[in-house]
Amino acid sequence: MTGVADALVVFGITGDLARRSTLPALYSLSQQGLLTCPVIGVGRRPVPDVELREHAREAIEAAEDDVDDVVLSEFLGRLHYIGGDAEEGPLYDRLRDALAGAKLPVFYLATPPSMFLEVADELAAEGLVGDASRLVVEKPFGTDLASARELNRRLTAIFPEERLFRIDHFLGKEPVQDIMYLRFANAMFEPIWNREHVASIQITMAEDFGVEDRGAFYDPVGAIRDVVQNHLLQVLALVAMEPPSGDDDAIPRRREDVFRAMPAVDPREAVRGQYAGYRDIKGVQRDSDTETFVALQLEIENWRWAGVPILVRAGKALPKTATEVVIRLQRVPQLQWGGHRLYSPGYDDIVLRIGRQAGISIFVRAKTPGKAVSQPVSLDLDFAEELGEPPQPYERLLADALRGDPTLFPRWSVIEETWRIVQPLLDDPPPIERYEPRTWGPTSSHALAAAHGGWREPQ
């Protein structure tokens, strides 16, 4: 249901996610004139408004290079706080008073997923869910296919699908959205974006840091649940989908088509790794079988992509931090005339950088001076340098939630398909293999890509 929200309720407003992302995003929306409603923060601790506002000021000043004092003052003035246990009625009595007169509130749960149901149930029990209310929840949505189905069944009984917004912040990243525009706004790409010209697709999400002080959070999750089932499959859908057309539902429909055409992953075509020293981290089980690295091969069984291997890897404690999509083109035949042969080593890749230093590199062939050899030469575009700094993901996503635009929020049918695709890895996981920090994962992950030219290491 569309319509601009007249109140925003943020559960978990004193938490780490709100400090790093939510509060700076709300300030930016205020600066753009897109946040016009009161913001009611909810947390466990009894905190006066003045303390919350100081907390918000510090978070915003830490995140922003240049803070507009007038805008900041205006934002802080619409910020209020309600403290108490999320399972107790008195908190919701105070929330009802704070929402007096609001017809279209948005409830945003910047909380652990374990709290989604209890908060939604309490909101419904206390009569705070109207016909236009929306609920925004963070990932992960469930821990496997069965739990996701149960969570969805219970949440949609309170907030129907059209009013339930599931955040995947990767879809709010400007470089991720740029994938669609690069494909469909440039005549040079779309004619070759298919199995006739593409030899393979690679997606790499590498982090040069480990789990550090987040062991208790990360150990029950692992790389498959943390980034593959959500972030990286959503990126793949934008890379592989058909051109959108029609109504506002066009892009979600096209993303869903990709997932429906994908068989579930075969555990025999996957590698799980764990970096040395992970089990020594506080909060990690001493015999932990959690993967900090995963590499796998996928397929899309449709007319455009049949037979094209799709290689996905993600890991922590790798040599660098980068997220890249590599479209590897088919090799051209070697040229030969008379006694001459033009050698063409290497691969012709289109590299989409969607992490740090976002941009695109297109590798074309140039003759090496004085030799009958061609070599790849890159044509590079840095998005920030050429187009300016993009908005942060939560700016776009929260703005869309406030106005009821679901385009960038995965709907249930998509979430269900992505869990189906990775479920065999959860049911029958390959054995954990150790790898040393600052390396590119277990050796067997290199063999997974060897037949397709090997992994391209981010530059």
Topology:
Layout (H helix, E strand, L loop, with lengths): L6 E5 L4 H16 L7 E5 L5 H15 L5 H9 L1 E5 L5 H10 L6 E5 L6 H10 L8 E4 L7 H12 L7 E3 L7 H11 L13 E9 L8 H4 L3 H19 L9 H11 L9 E6 L17 E6 L11 E6 L6 E8 L5 E3 L2 E3 L6 E5 L5 E9 L6 E9 H5 L5 H11 L8 H16 L4 E4 L7 H8 L9
Helix pairs in contact: 1-2, 1-3, 1-12, 6-13, 9-10, 9-13, 10-13
Question: What does this protein look like?
Answer:
The chain has 459 residues and is α/β, with parallel strands linked by helices. The protein folds into 2 domains: 132 residues, Rossmann fold (3-Layer(aba) Sandwich), CATH 3.40.50.720; 245 residues, Dihydrodipicolinate Reductase, domain 2. 34% of the residues lie in helices and 21% in strands. The chain is built from 14 helices and 17 strands. The strands form 3 sheets. Strands 16-15-14-11-7-10-9-8-17 form a 9-stranded mixed beta sheet, with helices on both faces. The protein has a 6-stranded parallel beta sheet with strand order 3-2-1-4-5-6, sandwiched between helices. It has a two-stranded antiparallel ribbon with strand order 12-13. A hairpin with a 2-residue loop joins strand 12 and strand 13. It is globular, with a radius of gyration of 24 Å. The two termini are 44 Å apart. 40% of the residues are buried. The model has no long low-confidence stretch (mean pLDDT 90).
